[in-house]
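If you are new to this repository, start here. Below is one unmodified record pulled from the training split, so you can see the exact layout before writing a loader.
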Amino acid sequence: MAWFKKTGDPETDKTVKIPQGLWVKCSSCKEIVYSKEFIKNLEVCPKCNYHSRIGAYTRINLLVDHESFSETNPNLVSADPLNFVDTISYKERLTISQEKSRLKETVVTGLASIKGIPISLVVMDFSFLGGSMGSAVGEKIVRAVNDAIVNEYPLVIFSSSGGARMQEGIFSLMQMSKISAAIGRLKEHSLPYLSVLTDPTFGGVSASFAMLGDIIIAEPKSLIGFAGARVISQTIKQKLPEHFQEAEFLLSHGLIDMIVDRKDMQKTITSLLIMLINR
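And here is the target side for that same chain:
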């Protein structure tokens, strides 16, 4: 026998429709969270403290002083040096990603201030082709480094990437050494570089500039590494430790310096910059 049955009254039998976007499902603990509570909590799950992926401009607004951000090189975009085609052409893939993400490239760069301290800022956005690093990304980051040197500003980079962009082949891999060499010039000018790793940071990005910071920060539970856990496990024929490649695991093994909640990021970066600038 059914527990519930229709009464025949259209008023009591009608289906209640829940408005779309009212709830958010946490991609980590799978709990359902009220959207307004989720946004108020800076898109951090109140149940498990998982820091969800956020867009570049959202992150910039959370970090810098109001209306202090001045974007640099906004129209610098990827070319197609290899005339690459898989299921569709690389040019088509770029166009689709630009329309979906409302970004022109994976990385947004600019000059800003944080609590009155001027900085050169780089923020990667995973929503654009998985945060992959192509020639335009490398060039924009190098120019941001040069801006830091010319203006004698500290450099702050927020990384979020799946690694090098396969559609650009060797041109993409060359960005690793190109950016690393540029960051080396920061040391010559005694300018601090803070690297912030967000979920996820992998591949050529983690193997180069993301791990070259004077201080390396990560958001809680961020996945950080070079290759994926499954690939590593199959290669070495061993079972990997629990929570392998999570920020907390890396901190306990000395690979990063600190883990900082999103709500504390501005305060922490400000304190670090004050100490490094006045050293």
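Two things worth knowing about this chain: The longest helix spans residues 169-188. The mean pLDDT is 92.
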